[in-house]
Amino acid sequence: LRPDYAKRIHRLARLKAALGWSYWEVDETIVALATPAAADPLDANLLIRLGHFELIRRRTNRPVAELIGWFGLLPAYKGELASDFYRAAFLEKGGPGQSASIFQLAVATDVPGRKLATDRPLDPSAANALGAADFEFLRETLGYTQADFAAVTNSGFGMLSLSLANLSMFYRLKSLSSAMGVTLAGLKQTMLLYGSPAAATPA
User: Fold this and answer.
1) pTM score, two decimals?
2) What letter would DSSP give residue 19?
3) Which of 25, 57, 23, 29 is nearest to 41 (CA)?
4) Taking a C-beta distance cutoff of 8 angstroms, is the pair 33, 50 a contact?
5) What is the DSSP string of 132-181?
């Protein structure tokens, strides 16, 4: 065990104890908040961001996993497999004519490899697009009304795909509006006013 690794493990253990979170929650929050390609992810900047994150958590009383989705991709993975959070939020739901397989994840051995098993277009005229039942299943799973979901996707689905990035975007906007007690239209206008990337049209 190299000294630098031992030091990081020790710091991770201290963070877990201080925050009272699970190791998975600490690890996924670091993934969401760390500076990309930083030599040491656990630097001073990350600790400041973690402090802000914990303040938001205490004020909103939202689960850590939900808040992670406000800052990056949904914490969908635990190792190479689906996390308990993602499994409960997406994979274990379904009904007649609806298939949770639209949320299946690809096997990922690292963070850059995290994605859905298949990116399916939302435009019904596109090849391999989601069927009507699965499209409604997507909307219902995220908790959107038909009007709100159309507004979030700019009132037309174009060639948007159901990717992990877009799923995270849809989830983030719905979760933020609920936590703030505002409508989705009001939230989007506020974000656009302040130039927030979270309000951008999904890719």
Assistant:
1) 0.85
2) H
3) 29
4) yes
5) HHHHHHHHHHHT--HHHHHHHTTTS-TT-EE-HHHHHHHHHHHHHHHHHT
Tell me the mean pLDDT per 10 residues along the chain, length 203: 77 91 94 80 88 95 96 93 93 71 92 92 86 88 89 63 92 92 81 62 42
Whole-number Å distance between alpha carbons of 131 and 126: 11
Per-residue buried b or exposed e for 13-24, using 16+ beta carbons within 10 Å of the residue's own CB: eebbeebebeeb
The residue type of 2 is R
Place of tokens 């030091």: 7
What is 53-73 written as a DSSP string? HHHHHHHHT--HHHHHHHHSS
Core vs surface per residue 44-64: b (16+ CB within 10 A) or e: eebeebbeebbeebeebebeb
Confirm if 173 and 188 have CB atoms less than 8 A apart.
yes
